[in-house]
Design goal:
Strand order of the largest sheet: 1-2
Number of strands: 2
Distance between the termini: 52 Å
Bound molecules: zinc ion
Radius of gyration: 17 Å
Number of helices: 2
Shape: elongated
Helix content: 40-55%
Largest sheet: 2 strands, antiparallel
Structural class: mainly alpha
Length: 78
């Protein structure tokens, strides 16, 4: 049995079946989490490209956390 580490929460887990590609996440929830985060990151990048307005708060690359993204959206709609 190979022990894998979840790409989302970092917890070690065992792959349920030896067939197919190795799973990256320990559970469906973790996979969904990453999907949601990717979507937010993609939308953040899109707004950075299109809206070059000086009012847009600067989000440091790599530090864009989930909550920070929400704050950005709140400010943008206010
Ligand atoms: Zn996980």
């Amino acid at each position: 049995m190979t022990t894998l580490y979840c790409a989302c929460c970092g917890q070690p887990f065992r792959r349920s079946s030896p067939r197919g590609p190795a799973p990256l996440y320990c559970s469906r929830d973790c996979r969904r989490q990453i999907e949601v985060r990717r979507r937010v990151w993609a939308s953040l990048r899109a707004t950075e490209r299109t809206a070059a307005a000086p009012l847009t708060p600067v989000v440091p690359a790599g530090a864009g956390s989930f909550h920070r993204g929400e704050i950005v959206w709140e400010r943008a709609s206010a």
